[in-house]
């Protein structure tokens, strides 16, 4: 299990650095907790980089661990001043420069708002909004009888494809979109999707080719086995298929078992759903639809691949902030 202590956070001597300031351009000054709260709720694009662990502990209280992954762990907590619920991610070996690039992309509501980060040298503490109530897609599926009805899966997939297309437009490759990295807000009649865990993500150039695989091994796209390389767009479309497959089947997806036909698409599913899965899970990456085709429903044979149907508008969130 991933654990940490206060001493493990202090990976380099940061005690001599000025606590509690933010950086905006080249300026720096102290910031009060009240100003922090006001700026968070106003959607300001002011950049906050704290460099002292004590400043974090003075502002926030840790409650319990929510999860962990290969790049760090996520904890629940709240802000002391107004009891606002937050979660924070302790990330290993991520540069502030990389985080700054995400910060300025201006992503929208399908991504968690990042309020502040604390640079502790080899580690970062990212203070994020915490949607409540919310569970990851795997737990959401378990709470709904191990499989989702197609109409509910369609609502989730439509939002997910829209979010993945936005990432692609910003030249961001998540690389590990899966049930555990998809939060479902359950506080309204329509489930709202949030993509989380950008620990393996990277920025891409047009036609970038990758020869080292990062992601979930069971979800590896077929081209990795056949060509020892993969690309952003076709891989993300493959992951859309994997997410939908696991949503409507009471089993986990495994690429090798799927390619060897030990995993199959259930015949009980509607023709539209089956066709959507077959399109996304096509072995040859060049024959898969693009995210734009999935998003707009403008596929080569419209009558065959219209599972997502008309756009789904998720419930609005009051206010905007800095998005990751």
From TrEMBL:
Documented EC number(s): 2.7.11.1
SMART domains: S_TKc
One GO process term, biological-process aspect: negative regulation of apoptotic process
InterPro entries listed in its UniProt record: Kinase-like_dom_sf (IPR011009), PIM_Ser/Thr_kinase (IPR051138), Prot_kinase_dom (IPR000719), Ser/Thr_kinase_AS (IPR008271)
PROSITE patterns: PROTEIN_KINASE_DOM (PS50011), PROTEIN_KINASE_ST (PS00108)
Keywords: ATP-binding, Kinase, Nucleotide-binding, Serine/threonine-protein kinase, Transferase
Family per record: Belongs to the protein kinase superfamily. CAMK Ser/Thr protein kinase family. PIM subfamily.
Name of the featured protein: non-specific serine/threonine protein kinase
Originating species: Oreochromis niloticus
Source species taxonomy: Eukaryota, Metazoa, Chordata, Craniata, Vertebrata
């Amino acid at each position: 299990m991933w654990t940490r202590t206060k001493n493990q956070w202090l990976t380099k001597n940061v005690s001599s650095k000025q606590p509690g300031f933010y950086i905006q351009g080249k300026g720096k000054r102290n910031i009060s907790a009240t100003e922090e709260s006001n700026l968070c709720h106003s959607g300001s694009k002011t950049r906050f980089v704290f460099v002292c662990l004590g400043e974090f502990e003075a502002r926030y209280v840790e409650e319990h661990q929510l999860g962990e992954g290969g790049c760090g762990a996520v904890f629940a907590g709240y802000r002391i001043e107004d009891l606002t619920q937050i979660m924070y991610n302790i990330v290993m070996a991520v540069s502030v420069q990389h985080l700054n690039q995400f910060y300025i992309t201006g992503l929208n509501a399908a991504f968690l708002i990042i309020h502040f980060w604390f640079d502790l040298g080899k580690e970062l503490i990212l203070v994020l909004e915490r949607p409540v109530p919310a569970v990851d897609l795997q737990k959401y599926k378990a709470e709904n009888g191990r499989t989702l009805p197609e109409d509910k899966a369609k609502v989730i997939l439509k939002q997910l494809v829209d979010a993945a297309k936005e990432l692609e437009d910003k030249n961001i490759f998540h690389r590990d979109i899966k049930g555990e990295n998809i939060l479902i807000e359950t506080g309204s009649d329509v489930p709202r999707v949030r993509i989380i865990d950008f620990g393996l993500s990277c920025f891409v150039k047009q036609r970038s080719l990758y020869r080292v695989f990062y992601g979930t091994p069971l979800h590896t796209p077929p081209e990795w086995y056949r060509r020892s390389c993969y690309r952003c767009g076709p891989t993300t479309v493959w992951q859309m298929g994997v997410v939908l497959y696991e949503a409507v089947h009471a089993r986990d997806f495994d690429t090798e078992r799927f390619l060897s036909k030990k995993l199959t698409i259930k015949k009980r599913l509607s023709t539209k759903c089956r066709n959507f899965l077959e399109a996304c899970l096509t072995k040859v990456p060049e024959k898969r639809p693009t995210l734009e085709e999935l998003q707009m429903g403008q596929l080569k044979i419209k009558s065959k691949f219209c599972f997502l149907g008309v756009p789904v508008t998720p419930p609005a969130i009051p206010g905007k902030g800095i998005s990751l």
